[in-house]
Amino acid sequence: MKDDNFLRENNARHMWHPMGHQGNSDANMPAIIAKAEGVVIEDLDGHKTVDAVGGLWCVNLGYSNNVIKDAIAKQLYDLPYYSAFSGTTNPPAIEASYAVREFFEPDGMVRSFFTSGGSDSVETCLRLSRQYHRLLGEPTRTKFISLKKGYHGTHFGGASVNGNNRFRIGYEPMLPGCFHLPSPYPYRNPFNETDPAQLAQNIANAFEDEVQFQGANTIAAFIMEPIQGAGGVIVPHESFMGLMRDVCDRHGILMIADEVITGFGRTGSWSGSTHYGVKPDMMSTAKGITSGYFPVGAALFNEKVADVFENSYPAVGGIYHGYTYSAHPVGAAAVTACLAETVRLDLRANAAARGKQLFEGCQALAAKHDIIGDVRGGTGLMTGFEMVSDKTAKTPIDPATVKRIQQATYEAGAMVRMGPPNILMSPPLTISEGEVQTILDALDTGLSAA
Ligand code: PMP
């Protein structure tokens, strides 16, 4: 590897970074993470911190899982690439689809379509939901409904159903025919409703109203994250997902659960859908499927959807959609190894217990630091808090203060994620009680720097 000065000088000179301003100014200089072990990351200066972000909500099994690393290395020597496009496939891909089924069969998912990541998985679900209706003789069903504050990746379809304008402005016009309902976000919502159960009902009513307005026969699918992640860790009332499912069922609308973050144990269940006892028609997954060790995702489908594609009635049609790296053998080997480890370690209980500890710790911080307006989480290892400059008026904090807090927290020993006005956390599911305490202590120091 080149020396540290070379790396610092050349950062952003030849590479643009996702999700941020470009340029090699000091203000834009990222932490250059060079090594990791367990749940601890180390930057070029040798500064070690607990990774409260879990890479990017993805390193569920921590950084030191040699079973996954060995499987990847071995597969590189056996067969580094072969496609699964019509006419060929490869053994690891078949094994991986078998491994995935164990997690989502309880949710009714019976088929996997492999992708290169979460955005691809979302795009696959959106496109195939249109095709599903076309195959059934309802080609007018093309629209999508989603939730404000949702995050569904950055392809044009996913970005069009995203519910945060940061990801839209600069790229508009988005895909036509995408409509957004309010988020189940008690802290701020257009109904001024603070009771989560009533808010869930209000949004279900708004969904029903929107379907009546648009015409059910124009809507292909409704997509939601069981718990909204990047939008601020918004945990809905337990009735919410079921109420939305009911509206879909009444009107023949497919339900897509975007489980890119919530899949594979993060919520304390194998999926967010299992947690809420709801069976979607399609699921988008990624991240925890390889614990981030290799870029893989999977779109999953239930029997009802599989039947239409496999029997193609009354229309005839194949799936003319897929990626060069769909079912990549090295990625597939990573999936099989990662999922075997996910089952063996079964971190669901740890995710729930450590998630509760982190959530309650953040509530204690909110009692001490007035800048915290709302603490969210408590369902597995996804926690966030929203910051305000005036608690009564709920005035959102300025992004520069969030950056200062994040930086001070990093210096004090924990990497947390900024999503102004929020700080977001999703540490590896392997994290210990002591390591969660390290995050909380570092946050306490960081918040004092506001
Ligand atoms: N859906 C959700 C719910 C996500 O959280 C993300 C990524 N954070 C995506 C889709 C997009 O995944 P990727 O970045 O792997 O394309």
Description:
Belongs to the class-III pyridoxal-phosphate-dependent aminotransferase family. Its EC number is 2.6.1.77. The protein has 450 residues and is of the alpha/beta class. It has two domains: 132 residues, Aspartate Aminotransferase, domain 1 (Alpha-Beta Complex), CATH 3.90.1150.10; 278 residues, Type I PLP-dependent aspartate aminotransferase-like (Major domain) (Aspartate Aminotransferase, domain 2, 3-Layer(aba) Sandwich), CATH 3.40.640.10. It is 39% helix and 16% strand. It is built from 14 helices and 16 strands. Strands 4-10-9-8-7-5-6 form a seven-stranded mixed beta sheet, sandwiched between helices. Strands 11, 12, 13, 15 and 16 form a five-stranded antiparallel beta sheet that branches. Strands 1-2-3-14 form a four-stranded mixed beta sheet. The radius of gyration is 22 Å and the shape is globular. The relative contact order is 0.16. The mean pLDDT is 95. The protein binds 4'-deoxy-4'-aminopyridoxal-5'-phosphate. The site of 4'-deoxy-4'-aminopyridoxal-5'-phosphate has 15 residues, from helix 5.
